[in-house]
Amino acid sequence: MPEFDASAYGRSIADIYDETVHDLPTDAAVEQLHRLAGGGPVLEFGIGTGRLALPLAARGLTVAGVDGSPDMVAALRAKPGGDRVPVAVGDFASARVEGSFALVVLAFNTIFALPSQEAQIDCFVNAAAHLRPGGRFVVETWVPDPAAFRSDRTDLRLLALSDDVVTVEAARLAPAEQMMYTTKVRMTGDGLRLLPANHRYAWPAELDLMARLAGMEREHRWADWTGAPFTDDSRAHVTIYRLPGEV
Ligand SMILES: C[S@@+](CC[C@H](N)C(=O)[O-])C[C@H]1O[C@@H](n2cnc3c(N)ncnc32)[C@H](O)[C@@H]1O
User: Fold this and answer.
1) How many Å lie between the centroid of ligand 1 and the Cα of residue 67?
2) Is any ligand 1 atom within 6 A of the Cβ of residue 197?
3) Less packed terminus of the chain by CB within 10 Å, N or C?
4) 2, part of any domain
């Protein structure tokens, strides 16, 4: 397997990233994160172009970030208020940021961008190291669903369809290594863009164990940012882990 490069994802997508995420429930996420922070400082792992961080900062919270992609950070910096959010460029499994936070956030499936179980455990440990006593680590990601794949373990899904853009995702599952290899194909009047992203997936219970290894306990697991119950049919989760102690 090639060595993990935390800047690779951003290099392929940074200039169009914001166009690809306007359907996400950003307002609900910001509302919930603002509530969970309780007025305290927030650190976002994989801060990207600031989809969540900038609205949180605009609400008066102190926000910092870590991102592996200089291209994504440049897009953040170019936005109003983007130059006031300190960002460390590095791998969020190991990068350290000055400060002690009420909330560490890892949204939009990005825990699975780390290529191994070991790296994901390191990320939980790193999140805990940045939290105050009683602080929270929020992870948003999908629930693995191998049954959705064909018998050859491939899948082709339509992700977006409008007059201006069609996006499909080709995926291949490698269950023995818990990897899903994907490339999105985004088609617009300007042509085709290939957007590769590989995911080392994990079931919610494995993430819970990683949290315990890092000294945290699960406080909530929701199906979405509104706090809807997580059920047998849930295909994604927002999970809140907490360090012992009072904030
Ligand atoms: C899917 S984007 C999410 C951006 C933002 N959190 C959002 O919700 O819109 C994932 C981001 O995480 C960054 N990233 C992925 N793996 C990383 C790693 N190991 N260390 C640091 N940043 C990483 C990418 O560069 C990208 O900016």
Assistant:
1) 6
2) no
3) N
4) no
